[in-house]
Design goal:
about 180 residues, alpha/beta, 2 domains, six-stranded mixed beta sheet, 4 helices, about 35% helix
Length: about 180
């Protein structure tokens, strides 16, 4: 059990630590960087991989029909990266989908043995970040079952970043060619 005295000491130490961190980061209005555009915002500390992960979360939420499991491209330039993979794993079972057609066939057979679930392959088309903003384009299509070959539709997401991380500004459905 923590004593009241210990608790008060910890609270004081946290307040002091926050004050020191704010001073070290240019806590005063005049000390903020010019790159903040005069609004007083601190620099973005999130990376592009984090924006991809957030885009994947939004993409899956918008997918119709609702996917029950996922495939992720492995070893290609359309791979989602660690944050994208984690976002898919948070939504359901996720399997690697290799580029080699012979290995793809093996994966599809294994999936079929596990059940005829709605399966969505999600790929990254593009991702770019600069000056506290990011854009991510994703695409996907259903594999197996009644929805075989159906596109989930390409979508683009734009994000703004602050000290808390990426925040969705807007998303648009793209028209596939």
């Amino acid at each position: 059990m923590i004593s009241l005295t210990h608790s008060r000491t910890v609270r004081c130490a946290v307040v002091v630590a926050v004050g020191v961190a704010a001073a070290a980061c240019g806590g005063g209005h005049d000390a903020r960087s010019a790159s903040s555009g005069g609004r007083g915002a601190l620099a973005c500390r999130a990376n592009l991989d984090d924006a991809v992960g957030l885009a994947v979360t939004h993409y899956v939420k918008a997918a119709k029909p609702k996917p029950q499991r996922f495939l992720i491209a492995a070893g290609t330039d359309s791979a989602l990266g660690d944050a994208g993979l984690t976002a898919l794993q948070d939504k359901g079972p996720t399997y690697l989908f290799p580029g080699d057609p012979a290995l793809q066939k093996q994966v599809l057979e294994q999936l079929k043995e596990k059940g005829d679930y709605t399966t969505l392959l999600v790929v990254r088309k593009a991702a770019d970040a600069k000056s506290g903003s990011a854009s991510v384009s994703l695409a996907g299509h259903y594999i197996g079952g009644d929805d075989q070959g159906k596109e989930a539709g390409p979508r683009s997401y734009r994000f703004a970043c602050d000290t808390a991380g990426w925040h969705l500004k807007d998303s648009t459905a793209e028209h596939s060619a």
